[in-house]
Amino acid sequence: MSASALTLRSTKALREWAPALVVAIAVIGGWQGAIAAFDIQQFLLPKPSNIAAALWDDRGTLWPAGWYTFKEALGGFALGSCLGVLFALIVARFERVGAALMPIAIAGNAVPIIAFAPIFNAWFDPLEPTSKMAIAGVLCFFPVLVNTLRGLQSVRPQQIELMRAYAAGEIAIYRRVRIPTALPYIFTSLKIASVLAMIGAVVGEYFGGSFDALGVLIRSDAQILDFVTAWAGIVVASVLGITLYLAVAIAERIFVRWAPGGRDV
Amino acid sequence: MTEPTTVVSVSGVTKTFPRGNVTALQDINLDLGAGEFISLIGPSGCGKSTLLRVIGDLVEPTSGSVTINGKSAHQARTDRDYGIVFQDAVLFDWRTVSKNIELPLEMLGWDRPKRRTRVAEMLALVELTGFGDHHPWQLSGGMQQRVSIARALAFEPALLLMDEPFGALDEMTRERLNLELLSIWQQLQSTVVFVTHSISEAVFLSTRVVVMSPRPGRIAGIVDIDLPGPRSVETREDPRFFELVTEVRELLRMRGEHLLPEEEAAVAGEDA
């Protein structure tokens, strides 16, 4: 790529991101100004500048804690998503299994799984990352399952007829038609799952966990009324959540490059 | 009327769909010689697409049998003896034009250099050289259908099954692709079974036109098309062309193409 093309691309990127950036700066600026103007108590809403200061001062505890929680989220994300895709493949392949299990899976999808967090802490050692991975994993599982299945089933009948005309077996049809068709659906669900995984890990930690974990840190800071540090912890959680989401979005761009509308994150 | 070699032989084929107890095909007998271009024409519901699928072993006949090159239709499909083109191009969006054409070659286990060479030849044949790296959605409907034809022909099947391949295209594109298809057919010497709604298209392309009537689907008559070849734009202005078009139309009309539903039911009642 030539230098001019690169500049062109970065100018274009800048133009795309500029509106969002302006809004973000305006919101933070307005927040900072409003606290001074309306004399809002620190424990209700701290100043962004104070949060930034806390982020810097406590960087030695916040970021390692964030990393600890991020690993839990990542583990749960990987586990839940893989099982979701695998389960969808089985359900799509064997209709009877699907008829027996899908209503349960759809019902399961509607259950507020996060409510199970204390119970998961009882099932697994609450001080080990396993319990949080389990919550994150269950949260990820259902949307991935439902979306992947819909993708696998949205193949046009003529595509299957064409493959049969080429004497393709079930495996070839899955490899060459069903899975590629499902790929955009899978990535949509993985983006949802990436957000849910971080929520699962942090909320799981609110119900108890290792002192190395971000959720525990946020909760204990809030209990001793150190809301500035709690907010800083939330910022760390958000940054890590966004990072995971972006990683999935980038993977999507690489794997689903062919899609006609595959240009938006 | 015995052809030197019979490529497709349909004997006593009946197809009943259990749902609604519809007889899509009733006692169809038809032989296709090597190098023939046969059109199946008839109103919707006459079973022409079903007959094409029975020949391709995509639909199992209720009774009767189909042989292709002396083998059962199932064996012929397993041996990949035919190529197929549908009304929609049925291209895979995640594959480029070249990769779409390569698909049957991949399934046949051809190695990459051999596939590449053939794809280049096929692109030239359907006049799409230079579009190999495009994705299907970047092409017009007519171009997509040409890719689909190239894919069907890529492994040089002796038999080509086409289910209303130009049905979704505008008249001008359709006429141009008719000419292209004829020139490809002459080059490759393949046998073609072509399903269509259009009388003029059937007469223009075929060596024989099989007119089908609906409910139950059966052969109403076969018209031999004795137009001189190679056919060209002028063929459509030949007086003989009009005579043949009229002959096919009469056969269709006799069999109630333009009847109202209740009249159709009455005719079906008489038949039964």
Automatic annotation (TrEMBL), chain A:
Keywords associated with the record: Cell membrane, Membrane, Transmembrane, Transmembrane helix, Transport
InterPro entries membership: MetI-like (IPR000515), MetI-like_sf (IPR035906)
One annotated GO biological process: transmembrane transport
GO cellular component: plasma membrane
Keyword Transmembrane in record: yes
Entry's localization field: Cell membrane
Chain ranges passing through the membrane: 73-92, 104-124, 130-149, 185-207, 227-248
Taxonomic lineage: unclassified sequences, metagenomes, ecological metagenomes
Any single Pfam family the record assigns to this protein: BPD_transp_1
PANTHER family: ABC TRANSPORTER PERMEASE PROTEIN HI_0355-RELATED (PTHR30151:SF20), ALKANE SULFONATE ABC TRANSPORTER-RELATED, MEMBRANE SUBUNIT (PTHR30151)
Main location class: membrane
Name of this chain's protein: Unannotated protein
Residues covered by the ABC transmembrane type-1 domain: 66-252
Membrane topology of the entry: Multi-pass membrane protein
Automatic annotation (TrEMBL), chain B:
GO molecular function: ATP binding; ATP hydrolysis activity
Pfam families assigned to the protein according to its UniProt record, in alphabetical order: ABC_tran
Domain (ABC transporter): residue spans on this chain: 8-239
Protein name: Unannotated protein
Entry keywords, A to Z: ATP-binding, Nucleotide-binding, Transport
